[in-house]
Amino acid sequence: MTTSFLRGLASSVVTAFLLSGLSSVAVAQTATKPAAGPSTAIKEITWDDLISEKWVKEMQAEMTLMGRLGFLEDGTEAANKAMSKLRDKWNAAPIVTTYLNQRVRLPGYVVPLDGERHLRREFLLVPYFGACIHYPPPPANQMMLVQPTANSRIRAVPESMAAVWVEGTLREARLATSQGVTGYTLEAESVRPYEEPSPRGR
């Protein structure tokens, strides 16, 4: 029987993301870096800004090593051990502190944490379609928990895998959720459907 160990992983967006180096979010983003300004100004960032090049290179080497284990069959002790080791490293992925405690704007996809349907529900924001649902969870430094407040401006209930812009204060928070481990939280000032260009100044 042909083994499928790592085959799904190798074909997933997650692996493509790591093997290609720093990737752009699947939602279109501007290539420019946030302009310098007052600390209270909202800075538009990308997912690339939340992950270090050093860690990406380390994971590229790790994935190359994992690729050599393609002969392992799913469900075997060796296969499970290899996958568990990789998952642990992703859950412990280091964050980038550059934008912590600053107001930022970022696009991404919604991953609900429960079946509640109200404007203030918390959800995960991820950089590509299908993460945590059709594909394994991304590394912790590519997942954030969005926490709306009573004053958040939200036009509609964020649906699963909806593309949105979020604005708010970025914090460090390594939290284990039902859909994966986060490296950040975002205290949301606003959540709105994704539009191009960004909703700057709206």
Question: Would you spell out the secondary-structure blueprint of this structure?
Answer:
Elements: H1 7-11, H2 13-19, E1 43-44, H3 53-67, H4 77-91, E2 103-112, E3 123-126, E4 144-154, E5 163-177, E6 180-193
Describe the model.
With 202 residues, this protein is an alpha/beta fold. The protein has a single domain, classed as Beta Barrel (OB fold (Dihydrolipoamide Acetyltransferase, E2P)), CATH 2.40.50. 21% of the residues lie in helices and 28% in strands. It contains four helices and six strands, in the order ααβααβββββ. The protein has a five-stranded mixed barrel. A hairpin with a 2-residue loop joins β5 and β6. The chain is globular and about 50 Å long. It starts with 6 loop residues before the first helix and ends in a 9-residue tail after the last strand. The N terminus is likely disordered.
Q: What is the rounded distance between the termini?
A: 57 Å
Strand content: 25-35%
CATH superfamily (homologous) name: Protein of unknown function (DUF3299)
Largest sheet, spatial ordering of strands = 2-3-4-6-5
Tally the helices: what do you get?
A: 4
